[in-house]
Every structure is written in structure tokens, then in C-alpha cells.
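This protein record is not my work; I was only asked to verify it. Where you disagree with what is written, explain briefly why. This is what I was given:
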Amino acid sequence: MNNKYPLLLSPGKIGSVELRNKTIMAAMGMSQSDNGFVNQATINHYAERAKGGVGGVIVEVTCVDTPLGLNTKGMLVIDDDKYIPGMTDLANAIHEGGSKAFLQISHTGRGARRPIIGDQPVGPSAVAMPYSYMMGLANETPRELTIPEIKEIEEKYAQAALRAKKAGFDGVEIHSCGYYLGQQFLSKTANIRTDEYGGSKENRMRFHKEIVARIRELCGEDFAILIKIPAMEIGTAAGISLFDGIYYFKEFQKCGVDAIEVLAGKWSPEAGKNEAPDSAYKDCMAVILSLLMEIGVFFATGKKKTIPYIAGGRAQNPVAAEKALKAKKCDFIFIGHGLLAQPNLVNLIDENREDEIRPCIGCGHCIDHQLQHGGKAICSSNPVLARGDNDYSIKPADNKKHVVVIGAGVAGVEAARIAAMRGHKVDLYDKDTEVGGQMNLADKPPFKDNFKLLKPYLERQLELTGVNVHLGTEVSKEDILGMNADAVVCATGVIPSMLKIPGAERAINANDVLAGATTGNNVVVIGGGSIGCETAELLKKQGKNVAIIEMTDTLASNTGKTNQTILLSHLKGHGVKLFTEAAVQSITDKTVVYKDKDGNEKSLPADSVVMSVGNKPNTALYESLKDEIKEIYNIGDSNGGGIIPNAVYDGYTVGNQL
């Protein structure tokens, strides 16, 4: 037993299912199935987390009713016996890793989109899903379910649970949070029925009570039933109050549920002006909801709760998790994105190797790439996630080489560490005096606290893998040729672009501002991509009067949807002036002259002008060497990487090719 975290790493029980510790992998959609079937990528993904030490694995949201219940095209499915063999392989792989296996079952209801399901969505009532920045989605008005249809869907949930049991799962989790059908029945804004399935809290809960009773009838007492529900919802379209949540928690305890995963919901089109995105979330920020529900249930019944609550919210920090358990704020800790970033997170904690944990930086690409772009979840920290078959094995190199890597940004460090792990001798050079590259600027704007966690990880990995690091060392073509390297990897990043307009020499580049350059009081930022908008927010926080001029109709378009909405809410809320579809014409001593979308020429006062009009790949070194060196690679931003996940994946791929 690890004495640092005795509660976190001690066994726990959910129903009759005993877990080796009190960590649970939260269900997170990956959208990597083969038309709903479990494939090798799915098995590898969950097997790696089970081998990594987590106590229980809740497999991602799985559809009980196709096509109407689908969320994404890559969603897992269990509405037919034909899915049982693959699910059996998946449950076996999780068990072989030492974890207990639970399957999250769900119907998307009014959240299902016509391009995916091929029909009008259905819901408890004909009430459209409103836009919420937390999910970045709105939807068409659904068709109201009839009572026979509700009964049929209830049976589909129960039959899905039975299939999960036949496949070897230890239990199921009913997904009734977010924009899924279970939540819709519980919500008085989504469910405005006047029959036995709507109106009162008792009626709104009938859907769940009947599902739980039927699952118990089919699967017996030794099969765990978990439910994931919001303690409450907030926002303009919130439908579950704090008192509703307390009632639901009390009733679920009485009706035979073995554990409740506690979250909160939010239905707001915009964030508050100081609301934090994932990149600034605090550790274990949601465990307070669990304690709140426990207190509420006690006051409602006069008795302590009798089933465990599972809580978390950015819970990859074992100190915070142990503290939450010690304070009895919850009974189990769910870990989500932390396990996407670091599959063997729990083993590293148990082995006192916390400094090796690859952090989740809260960039939001995992969610955005899946829900907004119809792809698979990807990660800025973990290059393997949802790439190929999720194979984490690193094969030793057949021929050991001397590898020179130029550039210690995320792509270069990843290439260097993987190459070194495979047995190559690696020298890493960077003209800067610290590793991180663009990440050393990306963590400077407000609400980017968690980005700062990546640099210590990169430094530790270079140390552990034995890479020879040469910082503050700019190398030329001649220097590299003189090293007699077997392979060279160029990861030389980008060069900031500048507009060719009169007065452009007056402008300061956004990167310089992020690095600490000072400005006057009235600042105009030219370019409204993510860097321009984040720089504007930083300047506004410094007390400046700030305006952004962007030539397209969208600001921060290269940011994940949720983070983009929060960032724009900050800018608007704090009074940053925003001008889109505007083209800058010139910069004078005191103004920026631009044309609006109608061609009218206007100007803005400007003591300082900040240029943020994109970057171009810095390929000069690569171009000078590509005909001189037989094995040479160009990766990351210098190869047009664009976003952090792509740069890291570039480095990982090349490291394995060397």
C-alpha cells in the first residue's frame, strides 16, 4: 500500500463489485468503433487503462437504440446480440488488466442529429435542445415520444444491460447527464409532458425507476447499476434545480441504484466574463457537488446516504483526490481526461512517480475533434490516443543511430524522447534557453494555467530517456553537417507573419507581447485568431483599452468550440471592441485605418499596434539540409502542424520511424 495515498489506493465496493482502489475511469466518447462494433482500437484503449492501475473502467457511452439513439457515427452500440462477442473481448481485456468493467448505456434523444440518424430526433417533449456553450451544439425540435415508445426504449435499456452482463461486464452506468435522453426526462424544461412521465418530479423520474427495476429483474442483485446525473443545472434553460437533484439522489438510492456519479449541468448560450475554460480548471473541482448532495439527502431523510457517490473533475492530481476522500466529500474518484493523457496514471501514483505523469492541459481538442468535426478524440499530450489501433508499445530500433533533433518544442521533444526510448543516441538543440517552444507563449494569457503543466513533463522525459539537451545553442547547416548524424529531425517552428501595409513597422508582434513586451494604453490587435484574441484578453487584464480587427467573420476560429465561446464571452464581457470582416489599410502614428465589410474607411486610435496575422513554417534549415542528408525529417509547426495534437503526433511518428 502506498502510504502517501492510503484512501485513494485502498479497495472499495460498488454493490457487490469490489474494486482494487477508489479510482474509476469516467466514460468518455472516443468515436472509434467499426459501425458500432468493438474493434482492436477500442480494446487496446481500455486495456491500457486497466493495466495502468485504475480500479474501475466505465466504457464510453454506448447506444441502446439505433439509429435514433446515436450521438456520433463512431459510437459503440449494444442494441443487438451481434455486438456481444466484441463486448466480451472488451470486458475480458479490462479484467485481464485488473480493473472492473462497467458499460455506459444511453440514448441521445433530442441531442441526436439528423445527418447522423437520418431522421427527426425524439425526446420526452417537442422541445428543441438549446445551444449551450458547454457542448457547442443546438438541435432541431424533436418528435415527442408516445407512451408505448417510451416503454419500448425502457426495455432497450434493460436488454442492453443484459447483453452487457452476458458479455462479462460487472455492471452498467445509465447516462443521464448532458444532452442525453435520461437527463431530458428529469429536466422540467426538456420534459413538459402532462401524463405519467412528466409534470411532477415523481413522474419525471418514472422513466429511470422503470429501467432500473427491469435491469435488476433481468440481471440480478450481483450486477452493479450506476447512474450519472447532474446534482443540478444552471443557466437560462436549466431544468433541474438543487432541490430536484436532492430528490433524485434520494430516490435513486431507494430504487436500487448501487452508485451515483455526480456532475452538474449548464444550459447557457454564453459563458460569464470571468468563467474559466478547461485550461484553468482547478483539481477535483466537482467533488463539492457530491458533498452537497450528501448533506441534502441527510436533511431530506434524516439519514446518511447508503450508496457511494463518485466525484472528480480534473482529478489526475493524487494529492487533491486523497484530500477529497479524506474530507469524505465523495467515496470514489472519477478520472477523465487525465487517463486519456496518461493511461498508467494510477500505477505512476502508486509507484511515487508523479513527476512522470503526462498532464491534461485542458485544450479541449478531445471533445471538439469528436463532436464538432465528426472525428475521433485526439490529445495534445498523448499522441497515441485514437490514432490507429491505440498501440502503446515502443519497439527497440534494429539499427542504433545518432539522431540530431533541432527544436525543443513539443514536436521536437516527442521525437527525441521516443527515439531515445528505442535505443538511439539523441542530441537535442534549441536556440532558446528552455524547452517548450511555442508552449512558453501559449501559457501566458489568462486562464491558461494548466498549459504550464506540460513543460515540467517535457523536461522530465528528456532526463529520463537520456537525451543530450543543448539549450541556448543555435546551430547552422555547417554545424549539423559536422556532427555526422545518421538522421536529422527539424522541428524549427514558425516565423510570425506581418501584413505588408504602410506603417507595418510600427506594429509589435503578438508573440513579443506574450513574452512581456509593453504597450501603450490604446491597443489595436490586428488579427483575431486564437493568439490575437488571447493576447487581447491579456492586454485587457493589464488595464488597456483594446480593439481587435479581423478580416473574416469569425474570431478565434482555430480554438476548440467550448474554449472559443468562453474566450469570446470574456472579450465581450470586459469591453474589448471587436471588428470582423474588416481589412486593415494602414498604420499611422496614432491610428489604425481599416475598411469595414461595406467598404467604408474608418480608423481607431492606437498608441500601440499588435500584429497577429498567423505564422509561416520556418523551413530554412530543413531546405538547406534536405539534399545533403539522406535521412532527414521536417515535423511540427515547421511542417504546418497547426495545432498541438498534430505537432505531438508528428514527433511521435518520426521517433518511431527512425
Summary: Residues 497 and 615 are 5 Å apart (CA to CA). The chain has a mean pLDDT of 95.
